[in-house]
Amino acid sequence: MSGARGRIGILTAGGDCPGLNAVISGAVHYGIRNGYEFVGFQRGFEGILTPVLTQPLTDKDVSGISHIGGTILHTTNRGRFGGKVGVGNSNQIPDEILEEAKHNLQQLGIDALIIIGGDGSLSAGLQLSEKGVRVIGVPKTIDNDLAATDQTFGFSTALTVAVEALDRVHTTATSHDRLLFVEVMGRHTGWIALKAGLAGGADAILLPEFPFQIDDLVAYLRERRKQNKNSSIVVVAEGAMVEGELSIEDGGSSEVRFAGVTQRIMKRIEQKAPDEFEMRATVVGHIQRGGTPNARDRILARAYGVGAIDALLAGENAVMVSLHGQEVSTVPLIEAVSHLKAVGEDVLEYQVVKKLGIFMH
Ligand code: F6P
Predict the structure, then answer these.
(1) Most buried of 23, 165, 198, 353, CB within 10 angstroms?
(2) How far is it, in rounded angstroms, from Cα 119 to Cα 98?
(3) What is the pTM assigned to this prediction?
(4) What is the pLDDT of residue 1?
(5) What atom of ligand 1 comes closest to residue 141's alpha carbon?
(6) Distances (CA, A) of 204 to 40, 324, 354
(7) Closest to 283 in 3D by CA, of 267, 263, 264, 298
(8) How far is the CA of 99 from the centre of ligand 1 (A)?
(9) What is the DSSP letter of 93?
(10) What is the Cα–Cα distance from 141 to 211, expressed in whole angstroms?
């Protein structure tokens, strides 16, 4: 009875993330068992615009892909469908683009679209749903910054990679008595930095949520020196603010590019304390996003894929699947894209960091 229940499109949008293939696998395997058939759209929303880019998604096509990083459907965070630029900003997608996408989906007989994406892609999905396309969202981002779900898939793997990077710099920092910076991803929120910093034994953690002063950081590092702690490790979220300013670069696309925060911090420290600290920086970068998803992310991603089909079976529309405790349920898309989950003082890791005297303002 293949396809008797309906034809479902799937796309992966925005930056890639470990676990995307596991979502696709969960949705397609379970969906086929329930009478749906699937079409994959390539390169995110570009795939539903003209010329349409599709690929078959049969049971066989999605077999053995859950452990593979990246996305078999390819993705992009550029293109004609940019849904969000920066925190809180919503980009209105031109009407003709939304209409074109809707028309193409109708032509292909698509009954609903599963959009696997973060804040920006889901906000684009919301605009598409307002045009009458049935949309189910799946929360993807290594930043773990969507408030409407306990956890996004991909975060756990990224955190593991960041902790490993920290573990590795400890010995080299100690051997050279250096001040070592480890820059991790996190545009608007510092979940990776906070948790990796705590797990990886960082001495200072710099997050977008808690602006700090260079003078305070220098004073803290000097104090460590007085205690014969001659090396220090500082974790920096890419979106941390240096004296109230973000380090962003014009990437020429609708996405704001975060780059250079650690270099700025090092430069400012050197100005304040010339030749006092021998500094080096490691930017973990896309290693956090690439490669094999860990077990936690594969399980969560497959559960989200299955959850997206359950949402379809329940007749839902304009919702995002979300995790609450042990349960995958749904929240309205509008709610999912309107609140970012920021690190607050009530968070356990925040409190532990403060009690341990790790620098974090
Ligand atoms: O939003 C996820 C994310 O990984 C951010 O943490 C990071 O700033 C951004 O994507 C990087 O994207 P790109 O792949 O375009 O460099």
Answers:
(1) 23
(2) 18
(3) 0.94
(4) 45
(5) 2
(6) 44, 31, 10
(7) 263
(8) 28
(9) P
(10) 23
Segment 238-277, tens digit of pLDDT: 999 888 878 877 665 556 788 899 999 999 999 999 999 9
For residue 84, pLDDT over 70 is answered with no
Per residue in 135-175, pLDDT (tens digit) is 999 999 999 999 999 999 999 999 999 999 999 999 999 99
Question: Count of CB atoms within 10 A of residue 4's CB?
Answer: 9
- Token readout for 56 is 């078959």
Question: DSSP string covering 39-91, please?
Answer: EEESTGGGGGSSSP-EEE--TTTTTT-TT--S-TT---S-STT----STT--P
Answer for the pair 49, 80: CB distance below 8 angstroms, yes or no.
yes
Run of H or E residues at 249: strand 248-249
Give all domains of the chain, ordered by start, each with its CATH number.
6-154+293-336 (3.40.50.450), 157-289 (3.40.50.460)
For residues 146 and 336, is the Cβ–Cβ distance under 8 A? Answer: yes
Give the mean model confidence (pLDDT) for residues 213-229. 97
Atom of ligand 1 nearest to the CA of 119: 1
Report which protein residue has its CA nearest ligand 1's atom 12: 15
pLDDT tens digits along 270-308: 999 999 999 999 999 999 999 999 999 999 999 999 999
For ligand 1, what atom is nearest to the CA of residue 158?
Answer: 4
| Spacing, Cα 185 to ligand 1 middle (Å) | 7
- Per-residue confidence (pLDDT) for residue 253, from 0 to 100: 56
Could you give the residue ranges of the DSSP H alpha helices within the chain?
A: 20-33, 95-107, 119-130, 155-176, 191-199, 214-226, 261-272, 295-313, 333-336, 348-355
Q: Residue type at 279?
A: M
Known active-site residue 143: yes
Give, using CA atoms, the residue closest to atom 16 of ligand 1. 257
Return all residues near 108 (Cβ < 8 A) that are at least 6 apart: 7, 9, 39, 52, 54
Neighbour-count burial of 142, counting CB atoms closer than 10 A to its CB (0-12 exposed, 13-18 middle, 19+ buried): buried
